[in-house]
Each structure stands twice: as C-alpha cells, then as structure tokens.
Design brief:
This protein is an alpha+beta fold and about 120 residues long. The protein has 2 helices and 5 strands.
C-alpha cells in the first residue's frame, strides 16, 4: 500500500511540473511602462527603452494592459520577467526584450491638475 502511495505521489509531482511554463534562466525582473500600438511595442523604464518582441506572451501583455488605458497612446506600468537581447537589425531599438512572464499590470497614474500645462489665450 505504501508503494502505491509513493508511486502516486511521484506521478502527481511529475505531471504537475509539466504544466508550469518554463522561464528562460536569463530572464530578469523589469519594471517599466508598456505601450503597444499597431505593429510595435515598447517598454520604457527610467534609464532604458526596449523594443518588445511581439510574440504570444507580448500580445497577452497587450490584452491585459488594454483595460487600463484611457487613451490609445497611454503607457501602462507593468512588472515582467524578460530576456534582453541586442537587436540584430539596424533599424528600431538597440535592444529588444522577450516577455517571459507577466508579473503585474498596474493602473495608469493620474496626472495631478496642478502639474498640467495651462495655456491662456487672450486677444
């Protein structure tokens, strides 16, 4: 009876591990603002800008950020795990990021009224 339970436990452990998505060991945590418009996407941090490789995971991120946007060109804060590579093409961003895991999508920050530019037009 103990052998059956041990075998069942091992089988359960093996099958449950196969369902977990494999993340590239070179993936790093990235906090940035994300935007996807037409056929291009970008992650912009405080000190970097990466082009985003538009694969299934990036499209999933785009779908998750869409409800947070108030306007088409709003950038949405996100936390992801990604792999950064040099762009082999001469056009576009110097570095690209492949989204490996979506950790969190945050709401777009409101800009306080006092920080908005006011223009007075007098004639």
């Amino acid at each position: 009876m103990k052998k059956v339970l041990v075998l069942f436990g091992l089988a359960l452990a093996l099958f449950s591990c196969k369902n977990e998505p494999k993340i590239d060991p070179n993936a790093i945590d990235i906090e940035a603002e994300f935007i996807h418009v037409d056929n291009a996407a970008v992650l912009k941090g405080k000190t970097f800008i990466y082009g985003v490789i538009l694969d299934d995971k990036a499209l999933e991120l785009s779908e998750k950020t869409a409800p947070m946007k108030k306007e088409k060109y709003d950038m949405v804060p996100v936390k992801i795990k990604g792999v950064i590579t040099e762009n082999p093409k001469k056009d576009g961003w110097d570095q690209l990021v492949k989204v490996e895991q979506i950790i969190q999508v945050l709401p777009v920050a409101e800009t306080p009224v006092k920080d908005q530019l006011k223009i007075n037009v007098t004639q």
